[in-house]
Amino acid sequence: MEIITDILKITLPALLVLLAAWLTLKSMIKDNRNKIRQELLIQNSKIITPIRLQAYERIVLFLERISMESLIVRVSSPGMSADQLHSTLLGTIRSEFEHNLSQQIYMSPQAWEVVKSARSNMIKTINSEAEKLPTNSTGMELTRRLFEKIMELEKEPARAAIDFLKSEVATVLH
Residues 67-87: what's their mean pLDDT? Predict the structure, then answer.
């Protein structure tokens, strides 16, 4: 019996020391993992945040370029027919959009949907106003109708999308 007591006197403190050491090491390893994870997140955000901001900048530029005023000023020329202007406007919007498709990777799904919606609304507006014109209308007539239509709206689709993106970028920066 005395041997068992001696073994317990030696084994029990050793087991307690082993348990304390194991718990301490486990806690230290967990803390170290969390620290490394936080450092990686900080490093990733230092790399990704500027890229995300560049994507938002490019999409805002896209939206500015497809805003009705900018678009018409850039693509219309004297002597264009309404059909030519209509085709050129739609082609320019599609081209600009395709050029910026990759930016969606860095944007929230909601922001990308707002951008796609703005583009679609611009195309719908152009199509609907072009359809209302007589067959041999001039580009100036289409231009006038498009400006009138945009003036009727509370906010141009591209402008509404830009405002949404600005508010989203503000949350990214804070």
Answer: 93
Neighbours of 158 (CB within 10 A): 25
Q: Residue 164's pLDDT is what?
A: 96
Residue 5: per-residue pLDDT:
85
User: For residue range 25-36, what is the model confidence (pLDDT) as tens digits?
Assistant: 999 999 999 998
Report long-range pairs for 87-94 (Cβ below 8 Å, ≥24 apart): 89/126, 90/123, 90/126, 90/127, 92/66, 93/66, 93/119, 93/122, 93/123, 93/126
The pTM (predicted TM-score) of the whole model is: 0.76
Cα(37)–Cα(30) distance, integer angstroms: 11
CB within 8 A of 117, min separation 6: which ones? 157, 161
Distance between CA atoms of residues 50 and 54, nearest Å = 6
Cα separation, 86 vs 145, in Å, equals 12
- Pairwise CA distance, residues 61 & 39, whole Å: 33
Note whether 60 and 161 are within 8 A (CB).
Answer: no
Closest CA to 114 of 80, 77, 155: 155
